[in-house]
Amino acid sequence: MSVQARLAFCAWAATLAAACALLPLVAPAGWLFQAALLLGVQSAVGAVVRRMTPAGPPAVAAQAVVSLLLLTFVFVRDDAVLGVLPGPDAVEAFGALLAQGTADVGRFSIPAPVTDGIRLLLVGGVIVIGLLVDALAVTYRAAAPAGLPLLALYSVAAGLSPEGGSRLWFLCAAGGYLLLLLAEGRDRLSRWGRVFGGGPGTARPGDAAPPPVRTGRRIGAVALGIALVVPALLPSLGGGLLDAARQGRGTGGGGGTVSAVNPLVALQDSLNQPDNRTVLTYTTDAENTSDMYLRIVALDRFDGTSWRPSERRITDLPRPLPPVPGLSPSVGTERVTTSFRAAGWYAQNWLPMPYPAAEVRIDGRWRFEPEGRTLVGDRGQTTRGVRYEVDSLAVRPTARQLSKAPAPSPQIVEEYTGVPESLPSVVAETARNVTEGASSDYERAVRLQDWFSSQGGFRYDTQVKAGSGSAAIARFLEDREGFCVHFAFSMAAMARTLDIPARVAVGFTAGASDGGGGMAVGLQDAHAWPELYFEGVGWTRFEPTPSRGSVPEYTQPDLPSPEQPDVPEPRPDDSAQPLPEPSDSEECVPGQGTEDCGAAAVPRDGGAAGGFPVGRVLPVAAAVLLAAGILALPALWRVRIRSRRLADGGGPGALAFAAWRETTDSAWDLGISPQESATPRTAAARVVRLGRLEGEAAEAVHRLVTAVEEALYAPRPRPAQGLAEDVRRVR
Questions:
Q1: Which residues make beta-bridge pairs with 304?
Q2: pTM for this one?
Q3: Mind listing the pLDDT tens digit for each residue in 281-321?
Q4: What is the Cα–Cα distance from 210 to 183, expressed in whole angstroms?
């Protein structure tokens, strides 16, 4: 291998080694292979041009042009001239991809999905760094300064990494740079005999190294030193969904504290993820999983700027956990056992659990925070791939128990009813207006929940600007649009103005069935909800967010029992007097003779007395049939639409879409309203769960959604058979 080829290979390897530091930021890692291939073509072009001319600029220019053509072909070939030449449309497409990538970097949590925009940023950035390294180290034979572009690539990756960059990636980048320095040193030795010496035999043992060698060493030492220092000074992004924990002071034993930052932005990012990645899966013996909310952390401190968790003492994990504060033995409970498995990519410090947990069986370094009854990882412990089992209590208070709850302790009232002076007066005024006439804190809480969820005209929208401070709450009450955090923060703040202890819980809703008897919780199941305190019941969940989660049974109005219909019983004297018998005819007066009365009782048409009154019944029957026909028009119209949708034609994709739309419309007809933000797979799981479908019907739903996904994403959708029959089976 020639000297230039060896240098070019070392420059290619050093760039890829530094690019490996970007791997923890995104998933999957296929982009790196694409970057390696394009970088190899770029290096080969430089080697060919350098063989033809010793001048440096032509080689660098040729590499830049080829790199641009390669990026054009890979990313925007549909908008390019002949697929490779970047015309105006291609430049515009590049700009749109760069804007998309920049937005995605700020929107997604780590590890982010490799969208087209992010892939362009990754591959394009590596190509540019590779061009600089190759030009410095190979074309101009200055390997030491080539460490600066490598440093820039590694520093950006390490600065964005949630842990500041792993030692492994630093060793890769440093090893690639040192390999480049070694290759250049061997090249100089091969040309000069001794590196920059004055000739054979002129160097003496006590002589210092020549100036060029000292310069290379200094640059290398400075570059490696900066690579260690710069990542520590750069801000670090969150490491995953609701990455709220910051390890507190004190480890081991029973002491130490823990606090957390506001998870609001991470929660909104999770709700807006295009791919509903599975966070964890679980199996449970609970009869109803709709109330299986998985709480991560409770936000109990409202300072006017945001809702945050208070700094709390943490202890060793007790087994079992202490009794639930405020829960009376007279309140009905059921012990539920749930086994969890967290995804391998999901790493954050707080453990998702049902509330209230009674016992947790888990391996690792986990500590217990008693006030929120939460578990937090100690000394780097995270949820990544952990398995654990939780025994929790399904608390089932009655409306009477909640309405008759005694006043909470002064300590609870003081800690959980405080609101900042910056809270606009409209919040308290609105709370008083909504709850006017309520006779108990429970009734006031239910009225607040119903006002947010159904009566106040609020709209659920995850694209609304995030915010949890006083101004954001007032803006939300005025605009009446937002997502779960707006509803939860606003209801908790309004409850506090009514002297009801309140806090906000952050975690996940129950998720959806995985088709195998378990449940799967995804990113889009991230949620926030208010918890209000009632003495004798403890912290009690409410659900003010429309179309999200499930409304607790104890907040719903009681329905009359079918065994006791709401019909007043007759009074005892109602049947004491017999009803008078009607006379045969108004003209027949008693005492005028039976013959006259008998004659008056016979109809003129000769029919028997009491015959069928055809003249009067026919108009009534016609009116009833007409009304029935009018009422049946919507159903008849649905039948017609259904038959047209399920008729063959339009290709497999069109038929799949039509069948899926008919399925969701049929579910809506039967009371299961659609969720516009849900993916087809999430919507299918919701239909199965709320429609209580089993066996063939549930399998039919999954076949339908599979056909839709193939129509959306497969290059050539396969013709799906039996979709119409599946739709009928689901109905």
A1: none
A2: 0.50
A3: 999 999 888 889 999 989 888 887 778 888 788 889 998 99
A4: 18
